[in-house]
From TrEMBL:
<protein>
    <submittedName>
        <fullName>FAD-dependent oxidoreductase</fullName>
    </submittedName>
</protein>
<keyword id="KW-0560">Oxidoreductase</keyword>
<comment type="similarity">
    <text>Belongs to the L2HGDH family.</text>
</comment>
<feature type="domain" description="FAD dependent oxidoreductase">
    <location>
        <begin position="3"/>
        <end position="392"/>
    </location>
</feature>
<keyword id="KW-0274">FAD</keyword>
<dbReference type="GO" id="GO:0005737">
    <property type="term" value="C:cytoplasm"/>
</dbReference>
<dbReference type="InterPro" id="IPR036188">
    <property type="entry name" value="FAD/NAD-bd_sf"/>
</dbReference>
<dbReference type="InterPro" id="IPR006076">
    <property type="entry name" value="FAD-dep_OxRdtase"/>
</dbReference>
<dbReference type="Pfam" id="PF01266">
    <property type="entry name" value="DAO"/>
</dbReference>
<keyword id="KW-0285">Flavoprotein</keyword>
<dbReference type="GO" id="GO:0047545">
    <property type="term" value="F:(S)-2-hydroxyglutarate dehydrogenase activity"/>
</dbReference>
Length: 398
């Protein structure tokens, strides 16, 4: 019997295993991953941005964790020769209303101890010569990591310390026998004293087997990213964002220069036809599971969802709409400058009333299990502090 079994070898699972083994290399920790290759889902399909804790709507705890996470992830990358882009982020305003909101972001950053530089039009173009804007903020400590390299190195370090990584092992059912937790998997039964459920989009389903999290359900969203062609990649030097609008459900189009020089932008957001629906396919059992929740239908019928659908579906299925949005930041952008990049599927938790649950960390526990329903929205950024936090929960149960 293992001391700890971790379901899911993504960022949450591997960072927690790393924290546990750093604390006690003698622990018997097994990480169970249903895929044969790491990073096939959320942990490998993301922008890789390391964003410190500024911006409206962040709690003090989340702000602190993000800022700490940026520095710790950056140090981990430097220690293990992982590609890291350290050129900062430029947030631009193109209207007076956006400039006013930019001032509030500056206040938020200042109160959190995060260094930012206020920019005028000339200042913006010093950092991003092709960007349009009447005002801006430069955030020097915002960075980008190769999330695949980062995840693989975390897993490697876990194995070096003594952890076990078992791929091709899908957990189908969890039972608490009273003296241990028994996992029914695709390759047989595995027992552990304590279990961490960090199964991403599948975590909620496994938590429901324990009678937990009956107040929430998961709804998946398909996120399509684009990238600039190699000949146009110099249009963006680093990270370039629009000023966020808290009253709009649309995140806007963001530009991210990755460590390999590729510039991705997006995403567009639309309902996903399954938890792992990256192409135009759908998973009938998962769709039935999603649709069986009354909160899902209330969510679809809400005014906020209808506004989001109007904005985001147009960007998803009409490339000219996406281009128009992107041109607000870089006016010289042409349709020929864009090609489709990767697709991600992001989770959001819904309440029974059809409301989006908070993006704050949501962890549910029993005597022998810890279930991560929502690991905060900034997965790569918070990975190491979150791993420490979850490791403490697990150590209390050993």
């Amino acid at each position: 019997m293992h001391d700890v079994a971790i379901i899911g070898a993504g960022l949450v699972g591997c960072s927690t295993a790393y924290a546990l083994l750093e604390h006690d290399p003698g622990l018997d920790v097994v990480i169970l991953e249903k895929e044969y290759h790491l990073g096939q889902h959320q942990s490998g399909r993301n922008s890789g941005v390391l964003q410190p804790g500024y911006g409206a709507g962040l709690s003090e705890r989340e702000s602190t964790v993000r800022t700490e996470g940026v520095e710790r992830a950056s140090a981990f990358c430097r220690q293990h020769d992982i590609q890291l882009q350290e050129s900062g982020a430029t947030i631009v305003a193109t209207t007076d209303q956006e400039a006013e909101r930019l001032g509030k972001i500056e206040e938020s950053a200042s109160s959190a101890g995060i260094s930012v530089e206020r920019l005028d039009t000339t200042g913006i173009q010093e950092y991003e010569p092709h960007a349009a804007g009447t005002a801006g903020l430069f955030v020097p400590n915002e960075r980008v990591v190769d999330s695949q390299q980062y995840l693989h190195e975390l897993a490697k370090q876990c194995k070096n310390i003594g952890g076990i990584l078992q791929k091709g092992t899908e957990v189908e059912q969890i039972d608490d026998t009273g003296s241990a937790v028994r996992l029914q998997t695709s390759v047989g039964t595995i027992s552990a004293q304590t279990v961490l459920n960090s199964a991403g989009l599948h975590a909620c389903r496994l938590a429901h087997e324990f009678g937990l999290a009956q107040d929430v359900s998961v709804v998946p969203f398909r996120c399509q990213y684009y990238e600039l062609t190699p000949s146009s990649s110099e249009l963006c030097r680093s990270l370039l964002y629009p000023t966020p609008n808290p009253s709009s459900p649309s995140p806007g189009v963001k530009f991210v220069r990755r460590p390999d020089g590729t510039v991705i932008l997006g995403p567009t957001v639309s309902p996903a036809l399954g938890y792992e629906s990256y192409e135009s396919t759908f998973d009938s059992p998962q769709i039935r599971q999603i649709a069986s929740n009354a909160g899902f239908w209330k969510f679809l019928a809400s005014a906020g969802t209808l506004r989001m659908a109007k904005q985001e579906l147009s960007k998803t299925y009409r490339p000219t709409t996406f281009l128009e949005e992107a041109r607000k930041l870089i006016p010289t952008l042409d349709e020929e400058d864009l090609v489709k990049s990767f697709v991600a599927v992001a989770l959001r938790l819904l309440t029974r009333d059809g409301e989006m649950a908070s993006s704050e960390l949501d962890v549910r526990t029993t005597k022998r299990t810890v279930h991560v329903l929502n690991p905060m929205s900034a997965g790569v950024t918070v990975s190491l502090p979150l791993g420490d936090y979850l490791a403490d929960h697990i150590l209390e149960r050993l």
